[in-house]
C-alpha cells in the first residue's frame, strides 16, 4: 500500500460514513409523512424477516398519511403488526386492501427528543470518521517504519488526512443543522 492509497481509502471510508449518516437522518421523523420512515421496518414473511418494501408498495396518500399496499392480501395483518411494533409512534389502520399509516403531528417535547436523536447519530458519525483517521495514520506510520515512504511524505499525508477529517466533520455538522431546523419547524 502506498501513501496515496492510504489517503484514498480513508476518504472513501469517510464518505461512506457520511452516506450512512444521511440514511440514518432520513429515518428521523419530522412532522410530515415520508415513506423513508418505514425503511427499517421488517415484516415476518413466511418465517423470514423481510423489509417492508419487499412485501408491499409504499405511497404517500397525503401530507400526513402513508399508504401501504400489500402485494399479497393475507400479509395485511402482519404488516400492520410490524409497523406497530417498530416503535415509531405510528398506528396503522386497514381500509380494505390499503393500510393507512397516519403520522401524528409532533409536539414540542417530541421534537426536542428527535433533535437529541439527530445529535447522537451525528456524534456516532464523527466517531467513525475519527476512527478512520486513526487507522489511516497507523497505516502511514507503518509505511514509514517499513521504509516505504519518507518522513516528509508521511507528515504531509497525515496533514492531508487531518484536512479530510476536518472536511467530513464539518459536513456532519452541516447535515445536523439542516435536520435540526427541519425537525423543529412546525
Automatic annotation (TrEMBL):
The keyword Coiled coil applies. It comes from the Bacteria. SUPFAM superfamilies: Ribosome recycling factor, RRF (SSF55194). The keyword Cytoplasm applies. Residues 122-167 form a coiled coil. GO terms for biological process: cytoplasmic translational termination. Keywords: Coiled coil, Cytoplasm, Protein biosynthesis. GO terms for cellular component: cytosol. Gene3D superfamilies: 3.30.1360.40, Ribosome-recycling factor (1.10.132.20). InterPro entries: Ribosome_recyc_fac, Ribosome_recyc_fac_dom, RRF_sf. One of its GO terms (molecular function) is ribosomal large subunit binding. Pfam families: RRF (PF01765). It is found in: Cytoplasm. Residues 21-184 form the Ribosome recycling factor domain. Belongs to the RRF family. Responsible for the release of ribosomes from messenger RNA at the termination of protein biosynthesis. May increase the efficiency of translation by recycling ribosomes from one round of translation to another. This is Ribosome-recycling factor. The lineage of its organism: Bacteria, Pseudomonadati, Pseudomonadota, Betaproteobacteria, Burkholderiales.
